[in-house]
Amino acid sequence: MDNLSQREILIEKYISGEMTSEELRSFENEMDNNSELKEEVSFQKDVISSLKLERKAALKARMDNVKIPSPYASYYTAGIASVALISGIVFFSTFWPMEEKNIISPKEELTEITETIPENSGETINEIIAESESSNDVENEAILNTEKDENEESVSGRIIKKEVISENPARLKTENKTLNIITPKAPEPLSDTGISKSDLDNDKDDFINSDKRETNKVEVEIKTSNDYKFHYQYYNNKLFLYGDFSKSPYELIELNRDDSKNLYMYFSGKYFALESNQMDIVKLSPIRDKIIIKGLDNLRLR
Amino acid sequence: MKDQEIIESIRRGEEETIDKLYAKYYNMMVKLVTKNSGTEDEAKDIYQDALIVFWQKAMKPEFVLTSKVSTYIYSICNNLWLKELDRKSRLSHEQQEGVSTMSWDSEERKKAINECIAELGETCRKVLTYYYFDGMSMAVIAEKLGFANAETAKTKKYKCKKALDEKVKKKYKASDFLD
Asked: How far is CA B172 from the centre of its chain?
């Protein structure tokens, strides 16, 4: 018995090629003279090679079931693109809060009003505008001589006197000193207030135009608050952003499907998913999924 | 996972590491083949073979990693594909000459062997394939399959192999008489 297992060990050693040249020579010599050994070696070769094939097939089957990340997220992008094409509407908007055109009208308005209220000079635009609104409240009839009812929701601007004095399209108001609300939904009121088209036909024209469509969909308000530095609320198609969004432009990307609508925000190099029906004020945290980011990048830069 | 951790994980027989490596380098390796006149199916096949070779090599105690894992797998992949291209070109020149060198006898025996392997219990099949194909040590097999120690694994392997051999011989002989 011991002899037999010794022989088996030798056969395996021979098959796996682990013999020294000396062992090999003597073993092959023995095979030549022992047909039974030769036959056993041939048999073992077959058994072991079949076992190997069995295992190799199992490992390959295992790999076949591994989920492969798609190269450069191209599948995902294609998916989004087709959704966009089918529904035909990818709303794409860029808001430039407190910058450029949104502020054109307020600025004109301001120069007008700040002349009458000189003590305001030197304050920040934000505060001045806020002040100008409240001055409207107070001096409404006296200075401007209109029957304004100060309805906060009346969107279209009014032309008062001959100057372009309108309700501030970038509606600013101060509820108290810690909470400013800015609504940078400029284009519609702007174009209604007689500001020449050329004012709008600047470099951001594309954005402004799509912005115009967009404003029908999602209303945005930026709020500054001591408690919420980088938060949002989103419900009833109204988005409230809390924090300082003046450093760089933010962009809203709306993906419309037949039955659902997803809103994403791009701000300062990061994407944020905005959950609808978000009644609570929650912190904005960037999307980390590389595939989603890639897909959004493709949409945004297209 | 660092390269050395990959090697250590393979030596513990952790097959999840294959999954991770496979997914990680899939696009890179497949591109290597498809850019060199291979189809994606061929690429996948070659890449799987290459990873298996890497797995077997890393399993050996004397294996020393001399480059990055990705570079290593890439070079195996490259070699395998060159071999395959060579085989394909020779095949087309010689028009499948010498395909049936295998005797009918040998073919029948292989069939019998495969049937017997399929009939093996799961533990026996694992012990034998881990040992013969992966080249796992008895200690690793014991750990993976929950045996008390390497000695137990060795005994198990011996018994399983014995049982398989006898089964095949019986079957092969029986088929002799049947035909």
From this structure: 25
Q: Which residues contact A152 (CB under 8 A, 6 or more apart)?
A: A171, A173
CA torsion sign for A147, A153, A159, A161 is positive
What percent of chain A is helix, strand and coil (3-state, nearest 5)? 50, 20, 30
Best B22, B45, B127 residue to mutate vs chain A (most A CBs within 10 Å):
B22
pLDDT score for B97? 55
Q: What are phi and psi of A138, to 5 degrees?
A: -75, -45
Structure tokens at A20: 């020294």
* CA separation for the pair B135, A51 (Å, rounded): 12
Digit-coded pLDDT (tens) for A85-134: 444 344 444 444 444 444 444 444 443 433 334 444 444 444 434 444 44
B113 chain-A contacts, CB cut-off 8 A: 46-47, 50
Residue written as token pair 């407190």:
A98
Task: State mean pLDDT over A126-149.
Answer: 42
Distances (CA, A) of A146 to A136, A150, A204, B116: 10, 11, 34, 99
Q: How many residues does chain B have?
A: 179
* A&B contacts, CB < 8 Å: 68
Single-letter amino acid, residue B1: M
Binary contact (A63, B18; C-beta < 8 A):
yes
The Cα–Cα gap between B59 and B21 comes to 15
Cβ distance of A63 and B133 shorter than 8 Å: no
Q: Is B132 on the interface with A (CB under 8 A)?
A: yes
pTM: 0.52
In whole angstroms, give the CA distance from residue A92 to residue A11.
73
Q: Note the ipTM here.
A: 0.91
